[in-house]
Amino acid sequence: MGISRRQFLGFLGAAGTTAVLGGNTEAASDKVLKGYPGSFGVLHDITRCIGCRKCEEACNRVNELPLSGIPFDDLSVLNTKRRTRSDAYTVVNRFTQNGDKQPVFVKNQCNHCLEPACASACFVKALRKVKTGAVIYDASLCVGCRYCMIACPFNIPAYEYNNPLTPRVMKCTMCHPRIEKGLLPGCVESCPKEALTFGSRETLLKTAHQRIDKYPDRYVDHIYGEHEMGGTSWLYLSGRSFNDIGMRDDLGKQPAAVYTSGPLSAVPIVVGLWPVLLTGLYAISKRKDKISEEERIEAVSRSIADVNENMKIKIAALKDDMAKEKEAAINLEVRRALEEAAKNSESGQAESGKDELLDKSGEEK
Amino acid sequence: MSQEIDRINKSIFTPFNIIAGTIIIFGLIVTFLRFTKGLGAVTNLDDNNPWGIWIGFDLLCGVALAAGGYVTSAACYIFGLKRYHSAVRPAILTAFLGYALVVLALHYDVGRPWRLPYPIFLSQGTTSLLFEVGLCVFLYLSVLFIEYSPAVLEWLGLKKIRNLIVRLTLVLTIFGVILSTLHQSSLGALFMIAPSKLHPLWYSNYLPVYFFISSIFSGLSMVIFEGSLAHRYFHYKMDEIHLKESKDVALGFGKAASFIMMGYVGIKLIGISIDNNWHYLTTRWGVWYLFELIGFVALPAFIYAIAVREKNLHLVRWAALISVFGVVLNRLNISIVAFNWQLPTAERYFPSWSEITISLFVVTVGIVFYRFIVTRMPILYEHPDYQHDN
Asked: Cβ separation of A164 and B34 shorter than 8 Å?
């Protein structure tokens, strides 16, 4: 009935192997990707941001994005929390807490991870990290599956949901085309308060550490993006806990690719092992069938042989019995004849005649 | 034969045709809107919730529920359980239709459906689990097509090709099991890239194993469930062998499903222990998690066990139905309910009517094709010309 216990356990055991094998080799080595050497980044000093939305305006202009109709100097949009959209690569949000004299403004855009979740998730390599530090998108390859949006821990990529046939994933390019021309990213260039600093990531990290050292009261001792999700090209300094200003601090230090390396590494093992295992199972079941068939044939022939043997014994016994019966019958007949003869002699025959008859019967025996 | 004539003489406005026709008409309207106005016009998807029921139900549940194909053919041809032979063809047919419809549904969901071959032929993103899913589903759909084709070839009377393909059965079955192992598990692994978005009770390093193991009992349960439906509506098409074996199939598969589901509950608890997520069980999410695990896995496993012991076919079918619901619930929990669990309620996703319409449309198209094929081709019976040569 059903799959036998052994077969089932074998199956389970094999499935378990894939899980066990899914470790990550990085844990055993000191190999940590630190990004392309000399690649660029931007340091966002949140304590300097005044929420003027000049960066949003510049971003909209240099990327030639559609205008929403609400002018960029209208600061009432800050009343609600916003996220990046297909027509806005960057948004500034305002955070106010009880007891704060002044609100905190945070600019939000693609963080350009050193090992981007979106790029690792993309099944056509439409997203990739380039040497300038930017994570860029190639719309000519994109299928529009939106797995990058599932994968992004910062909820950055947006999608042209209202484009029926040629929708694109939209996100900040760190102004990669401008960087290549030697220009600053639009937002950095437009910031009136130097809340944004463009430079090589290594330099920016040093700057950030210096600022924290110099003004320990102004900043929390945490550079957001130094380690988050394996590190990002954008770095943040804040006076408040990042969690309070909409930036998750529970993302961990591992790049997204680490989480999927286990299941990916199981693939070749399954491809290598399964044919052996399955052919083996097939061979076992086939062999079992063969053996049981052989046993059946053997059992049948044995039982036939047994029957023959029994028959022989029975026939022999029967023959024996018959022979005995025959003898008994003859003896009986002889005795009867003798008795008859005795009777006859008693009724007037000679004694010699009786003797003759006895001799005769002796010869017959 | 007389039943056949009855069927032909009947008006086309049967209840089935009316309901199916209505769904298909509405489906076509939404299809038109989808390809003229975009996803935004017909779905409730947004930038935070890029995947809705077209992925959560049509893809994830579709693939899981079509697992009957590889499970049944493996049981029959690899494990050598030949008395389930009559269950193989219906299971392969449903799997083939299931995967074909998954691909159909993907055409609605992805932005540029004509680019679906890109990941395979143009630009291979091998670091993506979606690449693995795409490649395996593509290959497996091809395998299923070949596995299913003997039924068509027998129907068309093309003996030579049919016999050639039948000789490939074992190789195709093994290939099918490999591909199914890979993509069934990868569908779970898809969500491993987003530990910050999926609730810890559902997120686990064992997600691929959970998806693979649950696909096995999902397939077993679907074979039982479909069998009961087929008995109700296509009884007259079944031959003696099919009718004789079908009880054995239901009881045997029910027994296997019961064991596997118990094991599944076990490994789910192991997962919770390893991540030490016990404290979440006392939250509202925990209640929902236990509702899924106890109500829709442990309970049907137990019902299966009782039903098999008492040889109660009716009860086995009920257990199968609950198990199928359980798999659907699990896939929806992972892709939708427990995904983005930290977002405020206002930013959460709930499917629109149009999305539900398309999902119903896809299922209906599947049923219509199933009916068309089953009433014409040798699925529930052996073709008289090819008996005893499998």
From this structure: yes
Q: What is the rounded distance in angstroms from the CA atom of residue B3 to the CA atom of residue B257?
A: 35
Give chain A's end-to-end CA distance (angstroms, integer). 70
Contact B140, B99 (CB under 8 A): yes
Three-state secondary structure of chain B: CHHHHHHHHCCCCCHHHHHHHHHHHHHHHHHHHHHHHCHHHHCCCCCCCCCCHHHHHHHHHHHHHCCHHHHHHHHHHHCCCHHHHHHHHHHHHHHHHHHHHHHHHHHHHCCCHHHCCHHHHCCCCCCCHHHHHHHHHHHHHHHHHHHHHHHHHHHHCCHHHHHHHHCCHHHHHHHHHHHHHHHHHHHHHHHHHCCCCECCCCCCCCHHHHHHHHHHHHHHHHHHHHHHHHHHHCHHHCCHHHHHHHHHHHHHHHHHHHHHHHHHHHHHHHHHHHCCCHHHHHCHHHHHHHHHHHHHHHHHHHHHHHHHHCCCHHHHHHHHHHHHHHHHHHHHHHHHHCECCCCCHHHCCCCCHHHHHHHHHHHHHHHHHHHHHHCCCCCCCCCHHHCCCC
Q: Is A226 helix (H, G, I), strand (E, B) or coil?
A: coil
pLDDT single digits (tens) B262-275: 999 999 999 999 99
Residue numbers in A near B178 (CB within 8 A):
270-271, 274-275, 278
Q: Is the CB of B192 less than 8 angstroms away from the CB of A1?
A: no
The shortest C-alpha distance from B117 to chain A (Å) reads: 9
User: How close is the nearest chain B Cα to the Cα of A89, in Å?
Assistant: 12
Chain B residues near residue A149 by CB distance under 8 angstroms: 47, 50
What is the enclosing helix (H) or strand (E) of A91? Answer: strand A91-95
pLDDT (tens digit per residue) in B22-70: 999 999 999 999 999 999 999 999 999 999 999 999 999 999 999 999 9
Comparison of pLDDT for B373 and B5, the residue scoring more: B373
Which among B43, B123, B194 is the nearest to A141, CB-wise? Answer: B123
**pLDDT, tens digit (0-9, with 9 covering 90-100), for A340-356:** 998 888 776 555 555 55
Residue A8's SS3 state is: helix
Helices B240-274, A5-21: axis angle to 10 degrees equals 40
| Minimal CA separation from A108 to chain B, in Å | 15
Q: What are phi and psi of A252, to 5 degrees?
A: 85, 170
Looking at residue A243, the DSSP 8-state letter turns out to be G
Q: Which of A118, A123, A128, A140 to mutate to test the interface with B (most CBs of B within 10 A)?
A: A123
Of A123, A165, A267, the CB nearest to B112: A165
Q: Which of B118, B197, B263 sits opposite A124 (nearest CB)?
A: B118
Out of B79, B119, B185, whose CB is closest to A123? B119
